[in-house]
Amino acid sequence: MHKNTSGVARRGDELKIMENSTLITLAEKLGNREISAVELNKFYLSEVEKKDKDIKAFLTVDHEAVLREAEASDRRRATGEARSCFDGIPIGIKDCIAVKGERLSCASKILENVISPYDSGAVINLRAHGFIPFGRLNMDEFAMGSSCENSAIQKTANPRDLSRVPGGSSGGSAAAVAAGMVPAALGSDTGGSIRQPAGFCGIVGLKPTYGRVSRSGLVAFASSLDQIGPMTQDVTDAALLLDVISGKDPMDSTSLDLPHTECFGTVKAQKADLKGVKVGLPKEYFENSGIDCGVRAVLESAIERVKSLGAELVPVSLPHTKYAVAVYYIIATAEASANLARFDGIRYGVRQEAGDLVESYFKSRGMGFGDEVKRRILLGTYVLSSGYYDAYYLRAQKVRTLIRRDFEKAGKLCDVLLSPVTPNVAFRFGEKSNPLEMYLSDVFTIALNLAGNAGISVPAGTDEKTGMPVNVQFMAPSLKEKELLAAARAFEAASR
Length: 496
Ligand code: GLN
Description:
Layout: H1 12-19, H2 23-31, H3 37-55, E1 58-60, H4 63-78, E2 90-94, H5 121-128, E3 132-137, H6 171-178, E4 185-189, H7 195-201, E5 204-207, E6 227-232, H8 235-245, H9 263-268, E7 278-282, H10 283-287, H11 293-308, E8 312-316, H12 324-339, H13 357-368, H14 371-384, H15 390-413, E9 416-420, H16 435-439, H17 446-451, E10 454-462, E11 469-476, H18 481-495
Parallel strand pairs: 2-3, 2-4, 7-8, 7-9
Antiparallel strand pairs: 1-3, 4-6, 5-6, 5-10, 9-11, 10-11
Helix pairs in contact: 3-4, 6-7, 8-18, 12-14, 12-15
Residues 143-146, 169, 189-193, 221, 332, 442 line the site of glutamine.
């Protein structure tokens, strides 16, 4: 680790402010020359040094690269060539999102030594605004999991209570932001992996509409569901990062060719109330008997808050939600079994030598993948096999359409939906040893991925019993991020 020789130490009082600084505050400090990009990045490097021994959110941090980029940023600002007012601000990156010259292991043994030869689309966009990719953040192996316990490298702890998990799969990103080791991070969400860990750690996490953000350079788990999104201190920062990372990318044919989002401006101008906004309450999400009473209490107070902000509450129904987890574990595993077939130890990652090619595949994949990944590959291969394809995969696709239609119908009755993010607060390590129990952590997040719509997880309160954070989820129809973020911002302002 680098010694703290930046002069930041002389400004002890400011450091406190910086610890939970938003991107907007940091941009102001950089803009009025209160701090340089090098000082700022040295500050975060020293925070990692201090805190990450216990939290273990980062797999690696390339100090030299970070400081080199910070120096370049300071030079640009000095000559009036800053790429944006955010030039020089570090952003943590989940280990499945490619950054040129950095490892890209997806927290898996099979890719342990892989260095990415290129930047992902989202990172190219970050760099175009001068943001600095900062470290590789831990995750469940190949983004399969809800607690980071499936990482083959290390277990990340929840900064709010080190005996608890940070959620997953973007648990490293959530923990790093919540602990103030980085001001914001990128995560990926296939079935809730941004929103659930954001909820467990008490930060904001946004899953954009499918196609809003390029998936180029995102290691594929389930290609029809995966989406990169921001994990931030507040809703305004999420809006701002969405504007930065979204857009058509010729390297991803599923990225949407739309006018650029301008969510930041909308959110900044957002009035403090929700008058005239129709907030739908999907009854199936509230009837779920698995919701813990502490979570339910926060949820009820959140509904009251939304009402007191002037919103009209509309009861809606998403009747096919009850099939979402089952459908997801057919479609996501089917896609994963195809996507992960390329990791055979020949081109990428760890190779186990053997007598012949097939034996080498068996050995490399056998030792390279963890148990959960193997379980999903087996399940996915099974549901795609001839004889079972129609019964499982095809039928799941049909139910997926019904789930999407539910959201379309609800979208005609209201502007945004409000729901829980998870049934419980962050659980303790080892508490959910049964895979099915773990899968059920995502009952409230998965349907949205199947529909392809946008959703955001926003802090709403704390569980009285454990003191752990509880978030709520706002969901919007496809491409309605502006409306989504504006509602979330008004809610956030009333929650603080
Ligand atoms: N927890 C879910 C799973 O294990 C979702 C993961 C994700 O969104 N990447 O598949």
